[in-house]
Amino acid sequence: MGKPDSYDIERRTSGHVGFGSGIHMCVGQLLARLEGEVMLSALASKVRSIEITGEPKRAFNNTLRGLESLPVAIKAK
Q: In angstroms, rounded to a whole number, what is the distance separating the alpha carbons of residues 52 and 31?
């Protein structure tokens, strides 16, 4: 049986924890999305190109679409 009230650094995670929706939505999701947008905008302003260099590997999940890996090359300006 688990111990939900204790922190265990070696605990096995159960996978992705999304932002949720409705009454169970993450209250920090707007900040997290803004941080992602700011980071990607800053990256885009500093590089000449981002190119896919290999075959993307899909992460199969019945509720989310995502990638396990996406090899890229970033070329500076």
A: 28
Closest CA to 64 of 22, 15, 31, 12: 15
d(CA 68, CA 61) in angstroms, rounded, equals 11
| H helix or E strand, kind and range, residue 56 | none
pTM, two decimals, is: 0.52
Q: What is the pLDDT of residues 7-53, one digit of tens each?
A: 777 777 666 567 777 788 888 889 999 999 999 999 999 999 999 99
Identify the residue whose tokens are 């409705």.
22
Q: Is residue 54 within 8 Å of 71, Cβ to Cβ?
A: yes
- What are the DSSP E strand ranges found in 1-77? 47-52, 57-59, 66-69, 72-76
